[in-house]
Each structure stands twice: as structure tokens, then as C-alpha cells.
Amino acid sequence: MAFYTEDLHSGIRIAQVVGLTTTAFFAGKTFAKSFSATPALLHAPAPLLAKQWKTMHDSDKALAPAVVAIGTSVFGYLASREPRNSKAFILYTTSASLLALCVPYTLILAEPIIQKLEQKAQDLASASLTDTAAEAGVRQEDTVHQLVDKWATVNLGRTILTGIAALTATWAAVDKLDIVPATIKLAGGAGRMGH
């Protein structure tokens, strides 16, 4: 039998838990949007799809920047406590960098698609939610369905970035644990009192 232990004060453990939990949660949430929610949404007619996508997107608008800020700060702090070039320093720095990379990734790749989808949602707001002819005559690559599909693909990239960030930070936290052998010793009579 073995117990895993590391002599860390509770502030560091809390930072590890907060960083790992928020990053893993965000990775799971972005994965679910791309692989569960989006395929279901794509069955809707264009006006309804635009409205549903906008509702889903707006509900998480503040989440991504908050998770990136928290994760980058926490993992950057944890890296700063480690000796340079140590495995934990490299892993925490990698995690912080991957989370920070989500910002330019989103601005460069996702934002143009998001702006087009928000415009579609505004343009189709007055159309009947089940109107199948609302986008008649629109070029194929500009349809709501095509844009939502592109957005889901780009969103997958954020899933990969945040997922790897969570894994490397977990590796850094777990790698520092030592294995301490634990033994159970049963003593009877006066022997159990140390005599």
C-alpha cells in the first residue's frame, strides 16, 4: 500500500484546484458545443438556427475570457514558484501559454465567423423561426448552416488548446507527488501502547 503526498501549503493546493478545474471545465464545455450542441442545432431552419446559435454564444461570452485569465494567472504563478528548466516549470508555463494563445486564436479565426453569424441572427430576427426559404439566393458558403459548421470547427481548436493546457497542468501537479510506503502494524496487549 502507498500514499501519495507532497508538502504544499493550502494556498498552492487551492490554486492548483482552481486552475485545473476551470481549465478542464472550459475544455469540456467547448468540446460539448462543437460535438453535441452544434450537430443538433444544424437540423433547425436558418432563422431558428441563427437565434439558437446566438443564444448559446451569448450565454458564454464572458466565460472564455474569465477562464483564460484565471488559468493563465494561476499556471503562471505556479510556474514562477518552480526552478527554471524543471519539468513542473515547463509544464505550467506550457499550460499558461496555451490558455493565453486562445485569445489571438479566437480573434483571428473565430471572430470573423462570429461577426457574420451575429449579423445573420440580426437579419433573420424578423423571419419566421421555421422559415426554410429565408436564405433563398444566398451563396452556399454564406448560409447560417455553413457558418455555424465553420464556427464549430474553429471552436474545436479552442477545445484542443484548453484540453492540452489542462492535461499538462495536471501532469505538473501529479509529477511532484512522492510515493511514501505505508505499512500497517498491528500490536496486541501492552505492545500497542509503545511498551
How many β-strand stretches?
2
Question: Can you tell me the number of structural domains?
Answer: 1
How far is the first residue's CA from the last residue's CA? 27 Å
Over all CA atoms, what is the radius of gyration? 24 Å
| Percent of residues in β-strands | under 5%
Present the secondary structure layout:
Blueprint: E1 2-5, H1 10-41, H2 46-59, H3 63-80, H4 87-123, H5 144-175, E2 178-181
Antiparallel strand pairs: 1-2
Describe this structure in words.
The protein has helices at residues 10-41, 46-59, 63-80, 87-123, 144-175, and strands at 2-5, 178-181. A two-stranded antiparallel sheet has the order 1-2. The chain is mainly alpha-helical and 195 residues long. Mean pLDDT is 86; it is low at 1-5. The chain crosses the membrane at residues 62-80, 89-110. One of its GO terms (cellular component) is membrane.
